[in-house]
Amino acid sequence: MKLHPVLEAVTARIRERSAPTRSAYLARIEAAASRDRGADRMGCANVAHAFAALPDNDKFRVVAERAPNIGIVNSYNDMLSAHAPLGSFPHIIKDEARKLGATAQVASGVPAMCDGVTQGTAGMELSLFSRDVIAMATAVGLSHDVFDAALMLGICDKIVPGLLIGALHFGHLPTVFVPGGPMPSGLSNNEKAKVREQAAQGLVGRAELLEAESKAYHTQGTCTFYGTANSNQMLMEAMGLHVPGTAFIQPQQQLREELTREAVRTALGIVKARRFAPIGRIVDERCIANAMAALLATGGSTNHLIHWVAVARAAGIVIDWDDFDRLSGAVPLLSRVYPNGSADVNAFQEAGGPGYVIRELLDAGLMHEDVLTVREGGIREYTRVPDWAEGPGKAGLKWTDVGASRDDTVVRPAREPFSATGGLRLLQGNLGRSVIKVSAVPEDRHVIEAPARIFDSQEALQSAFKAGELDRDVVCVVRWQGPQANGMPELHKLTPPLAVLQGKGFRVALVTDGRMSGASGKVPAAIHVSPEAAAGGPLAKLRDGDVVRLDGVAGTLEARVDPQEWDRRGPAKMDARQAQDNGFGVGRELFAGMRRNATAAEEGACTWL
Fold first, then answer.
1. What is the DSSP code string of 175-239?
2. pLDDT at residue 518, as a whole number
3. 159 closest CA partner among 93, 220, 229, 222
4. Are 102 and 129 in contact (CB under 8 A)?
5. CA dihedral defined by 22, 27, 31, 33, rounded to 10 degrees?
6. Where along this sequence does the record place binding of [4Fe-4S] cluster (predicted)?
7. Which of 507, 304, 531, 523 is nearest to 422 (CA)?
8. Residue in 211, 200, 209, 104 with CA at minimum distance from that of residue 151
């Protein structure tokens, strides 16, 4: 299939821009790959320490027989429903490795926080930077440097990007990502959102709200809406870093364990075949473009306009929001999954899931097919779905073509998409550069023009809502929420009150230098505004009553203020008390250096560049 000219042009632009950093990166990983294996290269005391805890048979294998040794990086904890199943995975992996004449060790555990727990609390100000902590913790584990391959165990919001950034700094290792799958469907996402809006209006109390939330989030597995965690899984499939079709198999299914074992077989297959397919080679400019296309085609999380910029940079590749925007003009929207529709990820999987979307994009020339993956069959393998070869519980797997859409209200072919363009847009103007998830917003709300109401915190907006001060057409501006100000928390708690205002018929929008959740919904929101207010960005110049126009059609975000008046204005300063409050409590003081050193959102909000 001939490549779509837009995909071809965007990829060429990325390749040209990245040439110096990418070539330097590849030289580093090739030098690392050319060394003797760790157990042969290190001193005897180093080797003894590395394998002291292994059973004797494993010690003999890895030292005397020079068997492959897999490093496991695990983000298990049981605070996260999605990560609770990962507690049993190392045992499964070690057992399978032994069957194949290899060994496996848990190289490190990495932290994993639940954004669902910390939403709207001070703890959320640690969330974005936890990605870089995870990357560093991954590096600490792999720095023992005795591994021939690696398995990355993780699913949720910051965890997969953090694992991926860390793994790319060991780009010479064959690396497979191992997910756990979504929880079975509970209370529907639409019903959950309805109760949240009722609670925001005071129509139901805490007991009713807690009952609804507990029915929605009820057991082990990933949350079932198509937020950042499930977008991660879609992108891992599109990048060829999973065992094909692994993303949305529930942890309660027998197939889940066999797919985890297949991840071991896949990693060792690369090592034993001496096929040079380390993660640093797989993740090239074509792979990154494929991930971007998959994100756009599914209306995925806006958080990835930050995370995948950082991921690309870890592989020596430079992308920006213009690349996303140009691709969005060519990539059709092929799925509707909550918050872009009523279906959850289990319904998405049943309708065709990642395999369907990837096949449609490949056949339309909107994904590169000539890419490396962790499988010899290439990215076409990811258009197939796994099942038992001989029946449930029996050894062996088979993959079959995903076939036609089984529900065209959830997934559609590229020739009959939900929308001719992708779900994300770049906005720019005198308020800076930002992004909007238009796929979740009703078409009659893609353009909003109204007087601004300025807030310095999300709590202030919620108080104004409860006092009835926002019952009008209004653009709510929440500033001092960027990486340098307070770590760029998600502002998902603002969705219910703004949705209530929109439901009353008011024309409302949100403008912020903070983030929204991957579950950001039907209210138009210009987010990630850069440069942020704390860095002297133009949001700091806005005043109450200034007319702001958010235009998701034209791609603009502007304060309708006389240009001479705008130029005369100096930026407001962040309140000293607020700045101090943002710096302490729940460990925030430990992240002060990260806030000082963070790059802008469009540069990935990185603390390590």
1. EEEE---BPPP-S-HHHHHHHHHHHHTTSS-HHHHHHHHHHHS-SSSB-SSSSHHHHHHHHHHHT
2. 60
3. 229
4. no
5. 40
6. 156, 223
7. 304
8. 104
Burial call 213-252: b when 16+ CB within 10 Å, e when fewer: beebbeebbbbbbbbbbbbbbbbbbbbbbbbbbbbbbbbe
Amino acid identity for residue 305 in this structure: L
pLDDT bin (cut points 50, 70, 90) of residue 395 is low
What residue type is assigned to position 230 of the chain? N
- pLDDT per position as a tens digit, 178-230: 999 999 999 988 898 899 889 989 999 999 999 999 999 999 999 999 999 99
Domains of the chain, first to last: 5-35+68-184+219-401 (no CATH), 185-218 (no CATH), 424-603 (3.50.30.80)
Q: Which residue has the tokens 């309805």?
A: 194
Q: Which residues pair with 397 in a beta bridge?
A: 388
- Distance (Å, whole) CA 573 – CA 569: 12
The phi and psi torsions of 258 (rounded to 5 degrees) equal: -65, -35
Q: Alpha helices, DSSP H only, in 100-182?
A: 115-118, 127-142, 159-168
| Total count of residues recorded for the chain | 609
Kindly report, residue by residue over 26-58, the tens digit of the pLDDT.
999 999 999 999 989 999 999 999 999 999 899
- What would the pLDDT profile of 467-506 be if each residue is shown by its tens digit? 999 999 999 999 999 999 999 999 988 988 999 999 999 9
Confidence of residue 519 (pLDDT cuts 50, 70, 90): low
- For residue range 270-318, list pLDDT tens digits in order: 998 888 899 999 999 999 999 999 999 999 999 999 999 999 999 999 9
Give the rounded percent of residues in the chain with a pLDDT score beyond 70.
Answer: 99
Reported in sequence order, the residue ranges of 522-609 that DSSP labels E, i.e. its strands, are 525-530, 547-551, 556-559
pTM of the model as a whole: 0.96
Cα–Cα distance between 240 and 374 in angstroms, integer?
Answer: 6
- Helix (H/G/I), strand (E/B), else coil: 450: strand
User: What gap in Å lies between CA 157 and CA 223, rounded to an integer?
Assistant: 11
114 marked among binding-site residues: no
Encoded tokens for 96: 């399978």
- Mean pLDDT (the chain, rounded): 94
pLDDT of 522 higher than 90: no
Which segments of 283-380 does DSSP mark as H helices, in order?
Answer: 285-297, 304-314, 321-328, 345-351, 353-363
Element housing 24 (H / E): helix 5-33
3-state secondary structure of 108: strand
Name the pairing type of β-strands 69-74 and 103-109.
Answer: parallel
Residue 407, burial from CB neighbour count under 10 angstroms (0-12, 13-18, 19+) = middle
Contact (CB, 8 A) for 470 and 436: no
Edge-first strand listing for the sheet containing 69-74: 103-109, 69-74, 149-153, 175-178
If 0-12 CB within 10 Å is exposed, 13-18 middle and 19+ buried, where does residue 280 land?
buried
Contact yes or no for 299/436 (Cβ under 8 A): no
Report the DSSP beta bridge partners of residue 159.
none
> Is 606 part of any known ligand binding site?
no
Tokens 């990962």 correspond to 86
Q: Kindly give, in sequence order, each residue whose CB lies less than 8 Å from that of residue 217, ignoring residues fewer than 6 positions away.
A: 81, 116, 183, 186, 223
